[in-house]
Automatic annotation (TrEMBL):
Coiled-coil annotated residue ranges, if any: none
Keywords associated with the record: DNA-binding, Transcription, Transcription regulation
Pfam hit, one: HTH_1
InterPro entries, per the entry: LysR_HTH_N (IPR000847), LysR_subst-bd (IPR005119), WH-like_DNA-bd_sf (IPR036388), WH_DNA-bd_sf (IPR036390)
Name this protein carries in UniProt: HTH lysR-type domain-containing protein
GO molecular function: DNA-binding transcription factor activity; transcription cis-regulatory region binding
Amino acid sequence: MNINQEQLLIFKTVMQTGSFSAAARKLGKVPSAVSMSIANLEIDLDLKLFNRAGREPVPTAQAITLFEKTEQLLIEMNQWKQHALALSSGLESALNIVVVSELLHTHWTDYIAALEKQFPELQINIFTAPQEDAQKMLVNGTAQFALMFEREQLESNEQFIELKRQALVPVASKDYLLAQYPKISFEQILQSRQIVVASRDRSIKPELLYSKNYWRTDNHHSACAMILQNLGWGVLPEAMLNENPLLKQQLKILNFADFTPKFEYFVDLVWNRESQQGAAARFLINHIRNLRKNTF
């Protein structure tokens, strides 16, 4: 069976116009070319698609069934061609981006929307992970980009662009013991269980860890659920509270006596400078650089 896109297009047009001559006019072909194409398609399929006894060809039941699938098949074939053309011009087959779980409230989808608009055929895969695991994904090539918090020291092969600031705040349920104090000493923090967002690798010490007694989770949503159950206190994105009025009523931002109870970090887009970048990766980097020029 050797069916090509032109045969399918001619078949579709005949079905829509109701005759070989009308299809020929619409496609800019002579009627004999349309008739021959349909005849060859019937031979390839070993099916009779049209009854030709009358003045105009009448579609058979088989033709009507196949016509229902033809439009979608032609769309998929066009998409396949466009994707192949994009790949030949340097587009990646896929782009993997990992977003640190506390940063899911940073409107990161704006960057993905810009990518999709520029490269609608591109396969984009989004992962979420704690900061330490996101860094691992960059190192081992599982992800080409990481949206993550600034770090004191970058790996030698890493490069980054600053995106914005993100604030984290220490919170507890309003019924939790720590929430009853107007100011909390460092000793109280040490002795109270902390729910900390950390790497799945238990050998890696969690960041923003203050308590001697702590439980780990790999995302801030589960951390929040445990905090609401009075299982401990923790550090959550301030934006998470601002976007959820009910959550803001249920939680109290803790007031630490010895330091400011608000942690502000820059958020960076990080990538491995030694990895070969495709068209989409280069576009994303340049897009964010242009946004910074227009903002700052």
